[in-house]
């Protein structure tokens, strides 16, 4: 039995694995966490600000777009707002898992966001603003994923999933351009 355990554990640092039982106050962050936790939390807080601003922009567009045949566009704006909120929630949860504090301060939201707010009235201007914001988010997430590399697989995996949705959003907005 002991021989099987040694065979199964070969290649693993058993002492490091057992050390994970220490420092319980660190929650999910073990000594083996290889990324710069503070830098990852800072990146995630910027992403959180971006997602929150995108929720606000899409919600505004949803409530203010008007004109004939706007039902499909309104529905798309609402769907995107809901998905951006889900992204914000996932990011905030990950920040807490990394022993950070999610920054929801509305006073500094626009300065921390990678994307910009839009208050245009014209549906095509709204679509363009949303497409620009999606492209900004895509590039931001791509750079974050590259910066994190393999040092934090959980955050990287989450960002890859969010990136895929942002790419879908960009395609959706492009399809509404005339």
UniProtKB/TrEMBL annotation:
PROSITE patterns cross-referenced by the UniProt entry:
FERRITIN_LIKE
What are the UniProt keywords, alphabetically? Iron, Iron storage, Metal-binding
Q: What domain of life does the UniProt record list for this protein's source? A: Bacteria
Keyword Metal-binding in the entry? The reply is yes
Which parts of the sequence bind Fe cation? 51, 87, 134, 166, 169
Among the entry's GO cellular component annotations, what is one? Answer: cytosol
* SUPFAM superfamilies attached to this UniProt entry: Ferritin-like
Q: Which Pfam families match?
A: Ferritin
Residue ranges occupied by any Ferritin-like diiron domain in the UniProt entry: 34-178
Q: Where are the transmembrane segments?
A: none
**GO MF annotations in UniProt:** ferric iron binding; ferroxidase activity; heme binding
Q: Which GO BP terms apply? A: intracellular iron ion homeostasis
Q: What is this protein called?
A: Ferritin-like domain-containing protein
């Amino acid at each position: 039995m002991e021989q099987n355990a040694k065979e199964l554990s070969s290649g693993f640092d058993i002492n490091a694995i057992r050390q994970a039982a220490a420092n319980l106050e660190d929650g999910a962050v073990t000594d083996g966490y290889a990324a710069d936790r503070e830098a990852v939390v800072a990146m995630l807080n910027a992403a959180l600000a971006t997602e929150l601003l995108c929720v606000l922009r899409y919600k505004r567009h949803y409530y203010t777009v008007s004109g004939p045949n706007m039902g499909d566009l309104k529905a798309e704006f609402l769907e995107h707002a809901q998905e951006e909120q889900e992204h914000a929630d996932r990011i905030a949860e990950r920040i807490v898992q990394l022993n950070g504090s999610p920054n929801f301060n509305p006073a500094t939201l626009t300065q921390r966001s990678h994307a910009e707010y839009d208050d245009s009235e014209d549906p095509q201007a709204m679509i363009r603003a949303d497409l620009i914001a999606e492209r900004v988010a895509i590039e931001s997430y791509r750079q974050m994923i590259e910066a994190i590399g393999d040092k934090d697989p959980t955050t990287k995996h989450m960002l890859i999933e969010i990136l895929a949705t942002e790419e879908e959003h960009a395609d959706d907005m492009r399809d509404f351009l005339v």
